[in-house]
Amino acid sequence: MNNTDSKSCSTKLRPETFLAFHICGVEKLTKDTYLVRFILPANSQLGLHPGQHLVLRGVVDGLEIQRAYTPISPATAEGYFDVLIKCYQTGLMSRYVESWRTGDMAFWRGPFGGFLYEPNKYGELLMLAAGTGLAPMVPILQSITDNADDETFVTLVSCFKTFEGIYLKTFLQEQAGFWNVRTFFVLSQETSPELLPWSYREKTYFGRLGQELVDELVSRCRRKPFALVCGSPEFTKDMARCLLSAGLMEDSFFLF
C-alpha cells in the first residue's frame, strides 16, 4: 500500500467525499449475492449508527454509477466492515461488483440514513425485511443482543423466495436464541413444511407477506410495536399500507 492509499483509508468517513477501502474477502452466499469484507486501518471503527448506509461508486464502460448499501457488520466492529450485495444480470453496478477480487479497492462515502436506533426507546421492534432488505436489520438486532441493558423485544420477519436463498442462517438462528428475539421466515416459492429442517417448520410461512399475516404479527407483538421495513420499493409500499391497516400510525414505522 503506498502513502496516498493509506492516507485515503485513514481519513474519516464523510458524506460528500469518496474514500478508498481495500477488499480483504469476497464470499458468495447464494448464486447472486455476495458478502464482501473491507479493511479499516489500525483497528478503527467505521463510525456508523446501526442501520445507516453508505454509497458505493463504480465505473463501468466509462460510466460512473452510485448505489446505496448497508453494512451488516456490528457498529462496534474494529478493523473491518462487511457489506451484503445482490447482483442482477442487467445491472451495471453488479458487473462492477462481480469483477472484485481480494486486494482491490472500492470507493465509499457516508454515512446516510434517518433512523438512529436508541436502546430501550421502543417496547418492541417489528422488522419486516425482503431479501437484502435484511441488511439494516442485522446491525440493529446485533446491537440489541450485544447490550445486556437493552431489553427491547424484536420480531424479525425475513422474506425470501426459497429456503436455500435465506442469507445468514447461522447468525439468525443464534439471534433467535436470545430471550427477547423471535425470527420468522416467509418463503414465496416453497409450499411444503416437510422439506424444511425441524427448527424452521414452526416459524416459516408460505406465500407472500400480506395483510392477514401482518395483522397476525402485529397482534402477537408482546409490547407496542415500532416497525422497520426494508426491501424493494414495491415491498416497502405494500408493508406501509398493511401496517396502517393493522392499526399502526405513520409515526410508528420507518421505511428504509
UniProtKB/TrEMBL annotation:
Residues 16-118 form the FAD-binding FR-type domain. Its cofactor is FAD. Its EC number is 1.6.2.2. It is an enzyme of class 1 (oxidoreductase). GO terms for molecular function: cytochrome-b5 reductase activity, acting on NADH. It comes from the Eukaryota. Belongs to the flavoprotein pyridine nucleotide cytochrome reductase family. This is NADH-cytochrome b5 reductase. The lineage of its organism: Eukaryota, Metazoa, Chordata, Craniata, Vertebrata. The gene is LOC103734111.
